[in-house]
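Subject: for your reference before the review

Hello V.,

The reviewers asked for a structural picture of the protein, and I figured it would be easier to keep everything in one thread rather than splitting it across files. Below is the amino acid sequence we used in the manuscript, unchanged from the supplementary table.
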Amino acid sequence: MLSDQVLQLLTAFVDGELEHRQREAVVRLLKESSEARDVLRQLQENTHKIKQLPQHKVEPSLVDAVLQAITEQQVQPKQPAPAREARRRWLPYVTASLAASLLIGVIGFLSWKALTEPTKDDIIVKNTQPEIKPEPKPDPTPSPTPKKTNPLLSDMIAETFRGFGAPVPVEKPFAVAFHDIQNGGAQELNRELNRDKAVQFDITVKSNSDAMKRLKDVLKYREISLVTDPAAEKKLQDKNQAKVEYLVFAENLTPDEMTRLMSELGESFVVGLNKTQRLVESPYKNLAVKPVAKDDRQKVAKLLGVEPSAIEPKDSKDVQPQPKNTRQVVLLPMNANGAASKEVQQFVNQRRATQPGTIQVFIKIRQE
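And here is what came back from the structure prediction:
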């Protein structure tokens, strides 16, 4: 019987939340305990089942109803009762203060009026003095009336200067580590995949050969076959070609499918049978998503032996259901010398029109 601490470690191991030392301890435990291996396998199966559950969206009406209920249940603060007795106690003092203020205001007004009104002596002196007329001042030269500027023209000029003066924004590609996709990065990845009809993945792995084996297993679990060009397969077996960059082309996959596929590629997995079973860390390290460059599209078209326009994603309203186990992804050769292999031609022949809600994916896999 496994302890609660061991069960918690196995659960955290599946979720990708353990540190390096903890993962090593779990790997040692799995080598020694068949019961721990059975529990881990069950946890991984449950994780896959949960990820395959349909996602439901909350209706806006439900959100409004909840907010309205919260508002109605809020307790309004009660206003304190007026202190009637206090007002009645201070009423005589307030009345006396107002009367005093009114009396002071009347006295001040009469004093100001007496000081400002001229006396009889002032009037006599003023009448006896000759009236001095001021010399007429020359009329100043009238200044031209400035013309009003059209506000629309001013706004256009201001926006033009702001546009030229502003720095050109450089959009960085979306990047994420594979183990972070399972820890909250799946939603951001899915949002990024929904931005365009075609995306490019730049993936770094520990080992190209191990990465291709893992990709083939995960695609098989999704009932998708990996068509491999013989030249590319030969380079995978050659240890001297470890740093070669490989190119995988896929289409008619939904953003949700690609998100789950990338998440599963980053998971640790069990290899071996019975007592020889052991847990292996995923060879997939980092992932960057960016738009497909024109040169890359032309390169893929050349490797497939078709025109670039033949792999342009086209809008299609007709849904063509495809039988299970017939969807394919192709691992392309490194160069386009000569005619395409029969494996690549087979992939080209089984292609179908772009389905609604799907994307094209150009995957570059490179060993670190």
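For the response letter, the relevant points are probably these. Confidence is low (pLDDT under 50) at residues 81-87. The two ends are 41 Å apart (CA to CA).

Happy to draft the paragraph if you're swamped.

O.
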